[in-house]
Amino acid sequence: MSDPQADVAELRQRFEAGEAEALLPELRQRFAATPAQPGLLELYRSCLEQLQRWPELVALLDTARTVHGLWPPVSDQVMGLALLRLGEPARGLEHLQRALEEDPDSGWVHYGLGQALLQLDRAEEALAALRRASSLLPGFPWARIEAARLLEDHFQQPLQALLEAEDAHRRAPDNRDVTQLVERLQEAVRWLSLDQALDAGHLAAAEALLADALLAAHPSDAGLNQRVRRTWDLLQERRARQRGSLWTMSDAPEIDLDGVLRELVASELLISDLERAMGLAPAPAPGGG
Predict the structure, then answer these.
(1) What average pLDDT does the chain have?
(2) Residues 141 and 127 sit within 8 Å (Cβ to Cβ)
(3) Is the pLDDT of residue 239 over 80?
(4) Tens digits of per-residue pLDDT, 25-83?
């Protein structure tokens, strides 16, 4: 007569060896025959979780609890996350809240809570949960990424979003999606800072920010061209006031970026750097000073 415990241990070894798909038929049969066999439900659950068989996983846990009175540890966490995958955030949230009572320091539970709350349009709670998940999962960048997107899209806070995205980038420096998110947010923050300086009429700050933007952006960038013209208008208006003459927006001449660069940037070295960045001047010869 075989030892049931040894049988489950053997099945687990096969699961850990990558045989999850092949194990499913046997696990279904065993659970139907002996659902209370120690370790069997947990193994069956892990197998379905790895294979992302969410409907079967939810059905299994429902049956285990309502028919057999079985609800092993972390079942609420697994059930909640599975329900999220099935597009049922309200039900998922209920299970995840119970899972949080079971393990308040589970990063995965907080991450699931953040996703559920986000789907339920509870943005502030979602942000808090995602940040908590990130603090508990130091090697996991996605909680920070979702927090960054939430700050950008819902709260309209690109600077805070950038800080979250940069933290995610430190955790996953080779991830292309994270890198692109950081670059996009850096551009958004750059434009926001420049717009604020222009709105306040702080020309010196605007010139410095524009010089930085010119180095970072492509010369055909629409946002760059728009802000170059705004800075040019402010500069001409200031000069008109200094001369004691009137200046209106209709007086603005047609300009090109090459001319504006020479008007806005005082340092000849910086001008040459900008010209090279825009393809207006040849690169220095190798080894040249």
Answers:
(1) 82
(2) no
(3) no
(4) 999 999 999 999 999 999 999 999 999 999 999 999 999 999 999 999 999 999 999 99
